Amino acid sequence: MSEMPVVTVEDRQGVRWVTINRPDKLNALNRQVLAALGEAMAAAVEAREVRVVVITGAGAKAFVAGADISEFQGLSTAQAQELARRGQRLYDAIERCPKPVIAAINGFALGGGCELAMACHLRVASSTARFGQPEVKLGLIPGYGGTQRLPRLVGRGRALQLLLTGGMIDAATALAWGLVNRVVEPAQLAETVQTLAAEIMAVSPGAVRRCLEAVAVGLDSPMDKAQDMEAALFGLCFGSPDAREGTEAFLAKRPPQFQPE
Ligand code: COA
Question: Is 115 a known active-site residue?
Answer without folding.
Answer: yes
